[in-house]
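User: Hi! I'm a student and our assignment asks us to look at how structure tokens line up with a sequence. Could you show me two examples?

Assistant: Happy to help. In each example below, the sequence comes first and the structure tokens follow. Example one:
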Amino acid sequence: MYSRLIAALSERDDIIIEQNVPMKAYTSFQVGGPADLFLQPKSIEALIHCRVVLQKHGLPYIIMGAGSNLIIADSGIRGAVIRLGKSFSRIKREENALIAEAGVSLARLANEALSCGLGGLEFASGIPGSLGGAVYMNAGAYGGEMKDVVIKTEYIDVDGNLYSIEGDAHEFGYRRSVFMKEDGLIVRSTLLLTPKKQEDIRALMQDFNNRRREKQPLTYPSAGSFFKRPEGFFAGKLVEDAGLKGIGIGGAQVSEKHAGFLINTGGATAKDIIALMQLVQDRVKEQFGVSLVPEVRFLGDFTE
């Protein structure tokens, strides 16, 4: 059914085109059914070509990087997935700034900053995921956020044009950016950092990562912290105080180590995770009157 579209995409030889690819292999939660089309462009020109062709054929599509903040439906993705992988992971230094492509992992980017003696990205060293997703949702941890360091972002619009925004135009807020309401495909960002002694950067990164290992269930598949922080509360404490630590549905479980994490203990489905999420939300609302809002993204049809 996609023969004409695939033919159009194949006009370039720098796009990997696959069909019916299981998404569980590409998400940190390790759940999700197959995507009809799975595209991996190897250049910005190929990425633009993918977007233009998909728009022309009216086929719905999503963009993904490391898949660390996604839950994909068990039925998969009808349409296309464009994945920005290793071909979009270049980093360049310009004085006190790093210019990095959307597919680079935050861990690698933080280590590059360390090697350059540039501080400001220590908070990101243990955050799973790629730069594009981090900018999209203004990822943060330990008092730092992407809005503190990102000064410019280049993106592709729906017509395949390359544009850039700077500063306040990002409209960064708590776990949000302008890209959540504008259909821009993030290509690269410029991060302005601060010269700092390497030993001080390394010590702070080690401190943050030690805290993560002590408090977070890093040995299980998850999407990281599952719920946004409600104003005046901590999501994990609310879930724990509701007596939900360790409760599970199917292969999904509220972590016994940190109640703010929902984890895949083995064989969980997206349906399990959604059911557990709803149980947690209902109990917390019932006991404390607080509505927990997930900070993960849900892709696909969850009505089945």
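Example two works the same way, sequence first and then tokens:
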Amino acid sequence: MVNNKKTLKLVVCMSLIIALALSALGLTVRAVYENTHYNSGDQANDIVGIATTQVGYYEGDGGYTKYGDWYGLPYSDWCAMFVSWCADQAKVSTNAFPRFALCSAGADWFINEGRFHYAGSYTPQAGDLIFYASYGNIYHVGLVTGSDGSNVYSIEGNYNEAVYNVSYPLSYGDIMGYATPAYETGAAVQPEPETKVEPEPAVEEESDEDEIAADSEIVVRYDDEEEPEVIDTDSEEELGETDTSVEENTEEAEDTEETSESEENATDSEDSDTLTAVPDTHTSALIGDVDGDGEVNAADALLIQIYISGDLNDGTSFNYLNADVNASGEIDIQDAVLALKISVKAA
């Protein structure tokens, strides 16, 4: 008994010493915030229940989040990836709720599906998505938890670098509108056990955010959101834009132009004047797929270069949204190099 008491005292003392050491070093121990919600099959309620379990989650060093890690962009702005993660946990079909990292891409998808309501024309319901915009720039998205007729309530990721409960007047000027996913109300389908992901230490060099899955559901870009003015908190978040860098030079893109003949749906000649025009559609789900053939290949990189040179033929299919691969706001040689890199990885 004496030995057991001595051992207990030693353990307690060591625990206090470790806690004091962590405090002195300024280290923070954050909860994992596992999804503890049990899916009922009512997906609108399930997605709200799942989001509620995440309130309080705070991003790690370098902006790391488990939502970005799940999506493939662990250090990017993450409000859109947060709502996409919640939809994935609720087992909502991608036909009803696309997984997206760029707010404008998600809004465009719902608009094209006829499932978007502009502010002032609709009363938001639990499970809806709320999109924010300023001067035409869609910069933030959250998950609606309800409305009382005067205010809208939501849970939003990347709000002051955390997951918060947020409320705004329905008349708030930055509310662009609301998306209404086609949720199911059938039998419950439980999510896969959540994998615990520990935050990675910050590094000085830029993270490689060019890893983009070739089978992504919709356009994959970086979320360059800016947070709205804070209504119910005392602090404001300063958001930086996600930097993307391309270290490849233009010679690499030029050296691979000749491979376009072997790619599916490529041109029959290396001469840009012989490009075959195809219907101009914007249904491609792949970033970098500018000719709409459903895959990213050297022909897409070549089309981007032809567009930059100003020699693009009239009638040639060219998806401008997919051509801006690095989401810089303009189409340049860096986009051609990135499209080529994606095609090589997908081959």
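Here is something you could point out in your write-up. The two ends are 68 Å apart (CA to CA).
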